[in-house]
Design a protein that fits this description.
The complex is a heterodimer of chains A (348) and B (801). Chain A has 348 residues and is α+β, with helices and mostly antiparallel strands. Chain A folds into two domains: 3-91; 111-345, 2-Layer Sandwich (BirA Bifunctional Protein, domain 2), CATH 3.30.930.10. Chain A is 38% helix and 19% strand. Chain A contains twelve helices and nine strands. Chain A has a seven-stranded mixed beta sheet with strand order 1-4-5-9-8-7-6, sandwiched between helices. In chain A, a hairpin with a 2-residue loop joins strand 6 and strand 7 (261-270). Chain A starts with a helix and ends with a helix. Chain B starts with a strand and ends with a strand. The longest helix of chain B is centred in the C-terminal third of the chain and has 19 residues, at 777-795. Chain B has a seven-stranded mixed beta sheet, with helices on both faces. A five-stranded antiparallel beta sheet of chain B has the order 6-5-4-7-12. Chain B contains 20 helices and 43 strands. Chain B has six domains: 2-40 and 167-201, Phenylalanyl-tRNA Synthetase, Chain B, domain 1 (2-Layer Sandwich), CATH 3.30.56; 47-161, OB fold (Dihydrolipoamide Acetyltransferase, E2P) (Beta Barrel); 220-411, Phenylalanyl-tRNA Synthetase, Chain B, domain 3 (3-Layer(bba) Sandwich), CATH 3.50.40; 419-489, Phenylalanyl-tRNA Synthetase, Chain B, domain 1 (2-Layer Sandwich), CATH 3.30.56; 507-697, BirA Bifunctional Protein, domain 2, CATH 3.30.930.10; 714-800, Ferrodoxin-fold anticodon-binding domain (Alpha-Beta Plaits, 2-Layer Sandwich), CATH 3.30.70.380. Classes of the chains: A alpha+beta (348), B alpha+beta (801).
Chain lengths: 348, 801
């Protein structure tokens, strides 16, 4: 058989073999068989060196053509096989997606931390900066400058915690502040006006039951500027209520009494359960949110602010209460929040 | 404080035709919050007046009787009843089948025709409490209607006979408004809120009868303590004691008082109507006909109306006769001197007491009463004569009362009305809208303020009525009155305008938030523990309680210390959760309270991270250290560990202090077994305590960065067998020192055990070598040789394949 016939035979044999290939592995076997070092093609190539120049040129060209054809057929087949494989991914590479996930370690922020951040953010957008004033405080800032005189019931040891420490000649006894309002005069004393302060802190009162914890948190907003009005206070709370509780919630102000504000208000929010119709969780469609008011001129004076020129509004609300009023969150006993049962903590 | 106001009583002073729903809403919105309303006839549907005709024993039950009862239309029915005070001919309340009653004054129950122990029972003969009147007393005794219904009422609806078509408002009043804790005060509030027209008895001059001629009996009044008792009025009256008429009893019950007899009932009636507490003494029990208002003697004994004996102390105000206290002033009368069925003559008291003294006294004695609750809010001296006049008027009509002596009136000084000038412009500036002057004046007038004409600047003078003596202290208080009557619901909302101030931030708050996120994001759960701890827990945790602050009046002794450290709470939390969950990863980031002499404590932010596991040692330590590393690397702070200076709560072999730039910022390691045991924890606990202000000093928040090299690094692994005593740190230092190309070392395996020699450990590390060009394998080999040679010669390391 001539060299060219051998080539033709090889080529024919390759075409027959290739037609039967159905996968990458078989293709690889063929590649070794037809293009490898011990392949028939290589055997034929080795014959070239014994040929004359003319013969070699002719035969070499023919052998190269066959080699290229085979290589190109391999490339084509590889591409086709890959396409076929990709088309079958849905069945060929299917996994059991119902197996449980492999989770990274997951921790939990306490719900109080989350609430503090959220509230801080809501007021930050209106220019209120979060600060921290002391929790352990002199009567001067907790009561005296807020017009809560020595005879006021809030100042007896049934309601407020006292610290066993010597009293200060001017500032009185050391107490655990029962409200974040203690920061109001402190903030004024810094001497910078106007003021937009948000003091979020721990506060303490001597009561412990399902709706009271002796240590709780308040967030205190203080706004001092020229021409502050009751309508501003109303607008501020509307902003908060809609941001924190939802755009469909309304607020209302009811007259109330606090020594350090005049007028004083109780702020109600429309009930999230019955949407204002009235249900057993609310009073005629309203739930109490917290107290607020226009700073009493004497309090401004105590902070060195001229009440003839400046006015102020302030509010100090219980954070736990506010959190627990969010629709859906039904904490039947507030004390649960600080009992640190991991089963509770890990739900947030 | 909550006050019960019957609507029908209120309407006697506030003429109104406003519907109930509007009335309630509006009265609430102006500041008299009606928390709930009560229908007194709630349990009276299908309840009739019946008459007992015959009482026979129940054949099968000792304690029950078969009562033949006449009901409507002369019809008689059999009712099984357990009442022990049943009598033939008695008028009783019969609840027919279908009636809703308050079973034993507690659970609601709808009656059915039934058989009780085999005997037919058509409904029930009720006790007062079963019909919603526990205030009438009598407990489970059946309600004897003989005093309040007539024979001709048999068969009529009880609600109609008793005239109980009414609504009672349960109003929560703020403590500064005792004037609103009475019927007349609420009527005035309602009228001020434009709900009706007011007929205000307190605006009239009180009509106190003048006794002509000599006093019938001796009566001397002596007030020693004018500061504690600014006004005391007393008068002697002859009376005829008996039951009050039903209309008066009913009003008392609806307003929350219990009818006793006409004289006592009238004193309560006046208190509920006007807000002036009254008291009546039996004149014949008052030694020497003398009333002395004085301070109690130390240890003086007093038997109060509630039948309890109290030991008084000096400073408490008593009303005494010649020999003994007959009342604790403004708090409670004495048992012996009270009005009884035998009383013929009384001394009627209408007085004013110092609110603080009242509060201190009742708290010291733990003795409360309706009078005390009013007095401690502060009442005007000018209210006393109104109470006196009204009580005398009622006693004359309802108890054959006769004034038989001069009214004694001892008061401290003259009364001066408070007055303020009010600028309507200022009012409007604070509220934020325009309310014209006439409207302002109209509102104040309806509340009883006397307002002058405006001057040339538009300013007007406002005289405060006596019943607002305690709460109107300045012109802003008047602004509030105008604003609340205008209605907050009618005000628009505005977002505060003005410049947003630049306020220096507390940057530690930002760091705290970042660290919390970092920890919560890597598997740690945040806890919030109480600031108060048990001083014993501090001791258990090896912490000196003297570092913290002692609370003088804690709720319990185990909450008496303001914590100087987060560790004791964390140990408690671990102990409490141990049974439930086992392995825990917890953290707390809060402030602790560190005592400072002569000043407020330092409130310092601390971080405490804790991990709990069955076994302690290196692994537990490394888990903790890993979290330290991520925090430190976040803030680009290089830390070192030192075993020096550990405090006693840390395991001396498994803990270290954390130093940054040579300064201690915290401690890391296992908690000392003694501490763990002291808290009853069975697992091992490792913790990391970081002083955040200290760490903050060393944080780098604007770090520079190294340009990543474009030349590929060479990676090699080494396995080392080394003596247990050689610390990993020593090996890495040796390696780093012996090669300039070595950039990092990463431990990926650590083994001790049967496969290797005892006292040795096997470590496997990834080494990364790099330079400012692509390293050849010869260059890498040279440095690896340097590294291994140095490890062998310095630490006796065996390099394993």
């Amino acid at each position: 058989m001539s060299f060219k016939d051998e080539l033709q035979k090889l080529r024919a044999s390759f075409d027959t073999d290739l037609a039967t290939v159905s996968g990458d592995d078989e293709l690889e076997v063929l590649r070794v068989k037809y293009l490898g070092r011990k392949s028939g093609l290589q055997d034929l190539m080795r014959l070239l060196k014994d040929m004359t120049n003319d013969e070699r040129k002719d035969a070499g060209q023919a052998a190269n053509e066959v080699k290229k054809a085979i290589e190109s057929a391999f490339d084509l087949t590889t591409t086709e096989l890959e396409r076929a494989r990709l088309e079958n991914l849905a069945t060929e590479e299917a996994i059991d997606i119902s197996l449980p996930g492999i989770a990274p370690p997951v921790g939990h922020l306490h719900m109080t931390t989350t609430a503090i951040r959220e509230i801080e953010g809501i007021f930050a957008r209106l220019g209120f900066t979060r600060v921290r004033h002391p929790e352990v405080e002199w009567e001067w800032y907790a009561f005296e400058t807020l017009r809560v005189g020595p005879d006021h019931p809030a100042r007896d040891n049934w309601e407020t915690f006292f610290i066993d420490a010597p009293a200060d000649d001017k500032k009185g006894k050391m107490v655990l502040t029962p409200h974040t309002t203690n920061g109001d005069v402190r903030e004024m004393e810094r001497g910078d006006l106007p003021i937009r302060m948000m003091n979020i802190n721990k506060t303490y009162r001597r009561q412990s039951d399902v709706s009271h914890v002796p240590m709780f948190h308040q967030f205190e907003g203080l706004l001092i500027d020229e021409g502050v009005t009751i309508t501003d206070l109303k607008g501020l709370f509307e902003h908060f209520a809609k941001e924190y509780f939802g755009a469909d919630r309304e607020i209302r102000l009811r007259p109330h009494h606090f020594r350090f504000t005049e007028p004083s208000f109780e702020v109600d929010i429309s009930c999230g359960l019955c949407h204002g119709k009235g249900c057993r969780m609310c009073k005629d469609g309203w739930v109490e949110l917290g107290g607020a008011g226009m700073l009493h001129p004497d309090v401004l004076k105590a902070g060195g602010v001229d009440p003839e020129k400046y006015g102020g509004l302030a509010f100090g609300w219980g954070l736990e209460r506010t959190v627990s009023m969010r629709a859906g969150l039904n904490i039947s006993d507030l004390r649960t929040m600080y009992s640190n049962d991991v089963r509770f903590l890990q739900q947030f | 404080m909550n006050t019960l106001i019957p609507f029908n009583w209120l309407k006697e002073y506030c003429k109104t035709d406003v519907d109930l729903k509007t009335f309630i809403k509006r009265l609430s919105l102006v500041g008299n919050e009606i928390e709930r309303t009560i229908r007194p006839d709630k349990y009276l549907a299908r309840v009739l007046v019946g008459r007992v005709k015959e009482i026979n024993p129940h054949p099968d039950a000792d304690k029950l009787q078969l009562v033949t009862t006449e009901i409507n239309g002369g019809k008689t029915v059999q009712i099984v009843c357990g009442g022990t005070n049943l009598e033939g001919g008695q008028l009783v309340a019969v609840a027919l089948p279908g009636a809703l009653v308050s079973w034993h004054g507690d659970n609601e129950l709808t009656l059915e025709e039934t058989k009780i122990r085999g005997q037919e029972s058509f409904g029930m003969i009720c006790a007062a409490e079963e019909l919603g009147f526990p205030g009438l007393g009598g407990g489970t005794n059946i309600w004897d209607l003989s005093g309040v219904a007539k024979d001709s009422d048999v068969g009529r609806d009880l609600a109609e006979v008793l005239d109980l078509d009414d609504t009672v408002f349960d109003i929560e009043m703020t403590t500064n408004r005792p004037d609103g804790m009475a019927v007349v005060g609420q009527a005035r509030e309602a009228c001020a809120a434009a709900l009706g027209d007011m007929d205000d008895p307190l605006k009239k001059v009180p009509k106190i009868p003048v006794h002509e001629g000599d006093d019938k009996y001796v009566f001397n009044l002596q007030v020693d303590e004018h500061d504690l008792c600014p006004r005391y009025m007393g008068v002697v009256m002859d009376v005829k004691v008996g039951p009050s008429p039903w209309w008066l009893q009913k009003r008392l019950i609806l307003a929350g008082a219990k009818p006793i007899n006409n004289v006592v009932d009238i004193t309560n009636y006046v208190r509920l109507e006007l807000g002036q507490p009254m008291h009546a003494f039996d004149y014949n029990k008052i030694d020497g006909g003398k009333i002395v208002v004085r301070s109690a003697k130390q240890g003086e004994k007093f038997l109060a109306l509630n039948e309890e004996e109290y030991e008084l102390s000096e400073g408490m105000l008593v009303i005494a006769d010649e020999s003994k206290p007959v009342a604790v002033g403004g708090v409670m009368g004495g048992l012996d001197s009270g009005v009884s069925g035998l009383t013929k003559t009384i001394i009627l008291e209408s007085a004013t007491f110092d609110p603080l003294s009242i509060r201190e006294t009742w708290r010291a004695l733990n003795l409360q009463s309706d009078s005390q609750a009013l007095y401690e809010k502060g009442l005007s001296t000018e209210l006393a004569p109104h109470g006196m006049a009204r009580a005398i008027e009622l006693l004359r009509v309802l108890a054959h009362g006769q004034v038989v002596g001069k009214v004694q009136d001892d008061r401290k000084g003259d009364y001066v009305h408070r007055a303020f000038s009010l600028d309507p412009k200022k009012v409007n500036k604070l509220i934020g809208i325009e309310i014209d002057t006439n409207t302002q004046i109209g509102m104040l007038s309806r509340l009883g303020f006397e307002v002058s004409d405006t001057d040339q600047d538009g300013v007007y003078e406002v005289k405060v009525p006596f019943w607002r003596d305690m709460d109107i202290e300045s012109d802003v208080d008047l602004t509030e009155e105008i604003a609340r009557l205008y209605g907050y619901e009618n005000l628009p909302s505005t977002i505060p305008s003005g410049v947003i101030p630049r306020r220096e931030r507390d940057t530690l708050l930002d760091r705290e938030n970042e660290i919390k996120d970092l920890l919560a994001g890597s598997g740690w759960t945040e806890v919030y523990a109480n600031s108060f701890i048990d001083p014993e827990d501090a001791v258990r945790a090896g912490i000196d309680p003297a570092l913290g602050l002692i609370v003088m009046n804690p709720l319990a002794q185990d909450q008496a210390l303001m914590r100087p450290s987060l560790i004791p709470n964390m140990m408690r939390t671990i102990a409490e959760n141990e049974q439930r969950e086992g392995v825990e990863r917890l953290f707390e980031l809060q402030r602790v309270y560190l005592k400072r002499e002569g000043d407020l404590p330092e409130e310092r932010s601390m971080l405490l991270v804790a991990i709990v596991d069955e076994v302690g040692g290196e692994d537990l330590f490394r888990h903790m250290k890993g979290s330290l590393e991520i925090i430190m690397s976040k803030y680009h702070a290089e830390f070192e560990l030192s075993r020096e200076g550990l405090s006693s709560q840390w395991h001396p072999g498994r803990s270290a202090r954390v130093l940054v730039d040579g300064e201690a910022v915290g401690t890391l390691g296992e908690v000392h077994p003694i501490v763990v045991q002291a808290f009853g924890v069975e697992y091992k606990v490792a913790m990391m305590e970081i002083d955040l202000p200290m760490l903050q000093k060393h944080m780098k928040l604007d770090p520079s960065y190294d340009e990543p090299t474009e030349f590929p690094a060479a990676l090699r692994d080494l396995a080392l067998l080394v003596d247990e005593k050689v610390a990993y740190r020593e090996l890495t230092e040796t390696m780093m020192d012996s090669s300039k190309l070595l950039k990092s070392i990463e431990l990926f395996d650590l083994y001790r055990g049967s496969q290797i020699e005892k006292g040795k450990k096997s470590l496997a590390v990834h080494l990364t070598l790099a330079d400012d060009h692509t390293l050849t394998s010869e260059e890498v080999d040279v440095d690896i040789k340097k590294i291994t040679d140095e490890l062998i010669s310095t630490h006796g390391v065996v390099i394993r394949d």
